[in-house]
């Protein structure tokens, strides 16, 4: 009871004291001064919230079972993805214009099986240890790829040499303060060239519960949520890095998952536990890409013509608008 309202020492047996409420409606953890006590009370509050949520979930499930077929459909939670602003450039697989563009673009020779991917992976000038290890591990993910470390050689001189030696793609890993922070992907010999910002790089030794070293089998490639014309082009660029026919006996899969214009790369191996249960085991490395620009032709920093450039102040006006 509040001060001045409860029974005093000389009073008789008053009404029974009300049951103590663990967390009153006005409870605020931040009002607790002691740090350890504040942390302990916060954990108890979170536990109580989980119990209430679980009890409500069980109650709703019992109500749905009682109603049977008359139960109303489950409510779809609102997310940024399903509230996405419609993009006019969303690709329709049955569109004749899209089919014509795919048959005549720079990647048509690859998808028509006229070329075999051959990749050159290089770095910024004089890379450090972490970038070197990342390039070596990336070469084990992409079949038929070769690592070359630059020492003051300009990209404009590297590209003609790559074309002369039948390389189909050039990957450049840039670094800042000894950390990989950028990726340039150029399709040879006619482009296009995509520039990505790279973040959240994790090497194999930094991944928990990782599997054994990947084998030399050609992995399966999964591309998720590349729905617009721009995203379609980026997805075709990634697909053109890998040979056509994956070797399923290796049980390896490379995934490029686009979510809110962030491209998450993961490299996994399937683990068949039984005929019905299948698990996945991450092999690494992992990283996240954010498209900064798409340039026509091969890399040209001075006179290159850009198809698309990310302009934050003009394009990032709504959290529900995505470009890929």
UniProtKB/TrEMBL annotation:
- A GO biological process this protein is involved in? maturation of 5.8S rRNA
Keywords carried by this UniProt record: Ribosome biogenesis, rRNA processing
What is a GO molecular function of this protein? Answer: rRNA primary transcript binding
Q: Where is the composition biased (Gly residues)?
A: 1-13
Q: Where is the Brix domain?
A: 117-300
Q: Which GO terms describe its cellular component?
A: nucleolus; preribosome, large subunit precursor
Give a single Pfam family match: Brix
Provide the protein's localization. Nucleus, Nucleolus
Recorded hits in InterPro entries, A to Z, give: Brix, IMP4/RPF1
Q: Which PROSITE patterns does the UniProt entry name for this protein?
A: BRIX
Per its database record, what is this protein's job? Answer: May be required for ribosome biogenesis.
Q: What name does the UniProt record give this protein?
A: Ribosome production factor 1
Question: Species name for this entry?
Answer: Pheucticus melanocephalus (Black-headed grosbeak)
Lineage at the top is: Eukaryota, Metazoa, Chordata, Craniata, Vertebrata
């Amino acid at each position: 009871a509040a001060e001045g309202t409860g029974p005093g020492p000389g009073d008789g047996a008053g009404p029974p004291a009300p049951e103590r409420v663990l967390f009153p409606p006005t409870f605020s953890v931040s009002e607790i001064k002691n740090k350890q006590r504040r942390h302990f009370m916060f954990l108890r509050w979170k536990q109580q919230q989980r119990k209430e949520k679980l009890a409500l979930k069980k109650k709703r499930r019992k109500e749905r079972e009682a109603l049977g077929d008359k139960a109303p459909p489950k409510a779809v939670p609102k997310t940024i993805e399903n509230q996405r602003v419609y993009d006019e450039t969303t690709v329709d697989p049955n569109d004749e214009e899209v089919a014509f563009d795919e048959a005549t673009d720079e990647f048509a020779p690859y998808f028509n099986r006229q070329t075999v991917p051959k990749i050159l992976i290089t770095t910024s000038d004089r890379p450090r240890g972490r970038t070197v290890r990342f390039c070596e591990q990336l070469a084990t993910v992409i079949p038929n790829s070769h690592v070359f470390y630059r020492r003051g050689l300009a990209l404009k001189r590297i590209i003609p040499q790559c074309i002369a030696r039948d390389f189909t793609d050039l990957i450049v890993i840039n670094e800042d303060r000894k950390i990989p922070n950028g990726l340039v992907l150029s399709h040879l010999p006619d482009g296009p060239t995509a520039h990505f910002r790279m973040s959240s790089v994790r090497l194999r030794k930094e991944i928990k519960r990782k599997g054994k070293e990947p084998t030399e089998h050609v992995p399966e490639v999964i591309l998720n949520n590349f729905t617009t014309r721009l995203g379609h082009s980026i997805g075709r660029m990634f697909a053109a890095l890998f040979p056509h026919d994956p070797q399923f006996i290796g049980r390896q899969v490379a995934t490029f998952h686009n979510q809110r214009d962030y491209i998450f790369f993961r490299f996994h191996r399937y683990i068949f536990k039984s005929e019905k249960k299948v698990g996945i085991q991450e092999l690494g490395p992992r990283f996240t890409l954010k498209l900064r620009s798409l340039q026509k032709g091969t890399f040209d920093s001075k006179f290159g013509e850009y198809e698309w450039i990310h302009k934050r102040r003009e394009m990032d006006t709504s959290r529900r608008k995505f470009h890929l």
